[in-house]
């Protein structure tokens, strides 16, 4: 069986076990958490090594071209996501009451502090999982390596260490079906179905939006910009998609996405040192910018606006767009805290 098939099997068995056994499956939550932590074990060192090595292999001109292309692509993806996001409320049905909604359901956000993204102590940033600070430190070292002569031996050592970290990740990934089983069983067994039913409009719309972007608009954009076909795009990312979905953690699939990205480059354009170094740089850096998964969380705000029969002005949409891009910078994708409480 392929890894994807094993993940699907573990997910299905986990859900069935949780439904039949109920609260008995609650202790499995610790097993699922242990699995996720094992996956995270090698991710931050992997990000540091790949960024320093990837940037160190590039020339200054190549780095400038890369930043321009990646920046343009990010803006295009943001525009596409916001267009879909603001059109989705048109699909909401007309309801007469909003009795269940209360501002007490919303949690006060933590104050946003840009200073924590400056790695005064990179080891502290690594220990506390402050990914943007780790990325900034790695970028600084990688840029410094560009202009250093005789860096070949260090880059070669980085490549060996990168391969070792990928092997660690692949070994832990073999445990994925068991980890997914534990997560699915504990979640299905302890879920409050009453709360779930009251949020069905939001949940269904969010699922449709996520599937549409994942299997529709984003692959179409990649097909438009590259010679890759639809089957190649979806098939190469299926394992990462399943793992990120089941664990609600994007960070742990960064090594997998980097590896698959290089593989696609080799198949479509023959690959090369510059293109593979670009993948090593793009994937870890893009994790820190607002992505589709993060921005789709804003659907909950639009759902609350619709459900409480309030209105949002044009300036409100502008403020929501700008503030969300700023607030999501450097923060890993996660489900709404209210949904996690289910």
Tell me roughly what share of residues is in helical segments. Answer: over 70%
Tally of separate helices: 17
Structural class from helices and strands?
A: mainly alpha
Q: Please give the alpha-carbon distance between the first and last residues.
A: 32 Å
For this structure, the quaternary state is single chain
Q: Helices and strands, in N-to-C order?
A: HHHHHHHHHHHHHHHHH
According to DSSP, the number of beta strands is: 0
Which parts are unreliable, with pLDDT below 50 for 5 consecutive residues or more?
332-342
Strand content: under 5%
Shape, per Cα inertia axes: globular
Cα-based radius of gyration, to the nearest Å: 21 Å
Mean pLDDT: 79
The largest β sheet comes out as: none
Q: How would you sum up this structure, described in words?
A:
With 342 residues, this protein is mainly alpha-helical. The chain is 72% helix and 0% strand. It has 17 helices and no strands. The chain has helices spanning 3-21, 28-40, 43-57, 60-87, 122-127, 131-146, 152-173, 176-190, 193-198, 200-225, 230-247, 254-269, 273-286, 292-295, 299-307, 314-327, 337-340. Helix 3 runs parallel beside helix 6. The longest helix has 28 residues, at 60-87. The two termini are 32 Å apart. The model is unreliable at 332-342 (pLDDT under 50).
């Amino acid at each position: 069986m392929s890894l994807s098939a094993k993940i699907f099997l573990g997910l299905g068995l986990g859900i069935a076990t949780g439904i039949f056994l109920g609260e008995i499956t609650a202790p499995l939550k610790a097993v699922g958490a242990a699995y996720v932590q094992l996956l995270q074990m090698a991710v931050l060192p992997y990000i540091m090594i790949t960024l320093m090595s990837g940037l160190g292999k590039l020339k200054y001109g190549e780095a400038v071209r890369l930043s321009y292309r990646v920046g343009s692509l990010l803006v295009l993806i943001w525009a596409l996501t916001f267009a879909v996001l603001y059109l989705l409320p048109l699909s909401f049905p007309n309801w007469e009451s909003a009795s269940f909604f209360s501002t007490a359901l919303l949690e006060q956000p933590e104050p946003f502090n840009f200073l924590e993204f400056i790695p005064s102590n990179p080891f502290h940033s690594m220990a506390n999982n402050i990914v943007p600070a780790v990325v900034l430190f790695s970028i600084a070292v990688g840029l410094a390596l560009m202009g250093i002569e005789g860096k070949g031996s260090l880059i070669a050592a980085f490549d060996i260490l990168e391969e070792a970290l990928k092997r660690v990740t692949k070994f832990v990934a073999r445990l994925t079906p068991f980890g997914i089983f534990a997560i699915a069983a504990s979640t299905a067994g302890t879920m409050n179905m009453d709360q779930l039913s009251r949020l069905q409009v939001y949940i269904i719309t969010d699922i449709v939006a996520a599937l549409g972007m994942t299997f529709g608009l984003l692959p179409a954009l990649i097909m438009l910009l590259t010679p890759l076909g639809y089957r190649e795009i979806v098939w190469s990312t299926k394992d990462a998609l399943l793992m990120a979905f089941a664990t609600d953690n994007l960070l742990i699939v960064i090594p997998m996405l980097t590896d698959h990205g290089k593989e696609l480059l080799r198949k479509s354009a023959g690959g090369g040192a510059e293109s593979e170094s670009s993948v090593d740089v793009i994937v870890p850096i893009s994790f820190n910018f607002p992505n589709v998964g993060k921005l789709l969380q804003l659907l909950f705000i639009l759902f609350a606006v619709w459900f409480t029969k309030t209105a949002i002005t044009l300036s409100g949409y502008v403020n929501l767009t700008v503030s969300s891009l700023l607030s999501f910078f450097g923060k890993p994708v996660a489900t709404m805290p209210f949904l996690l409480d289910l």
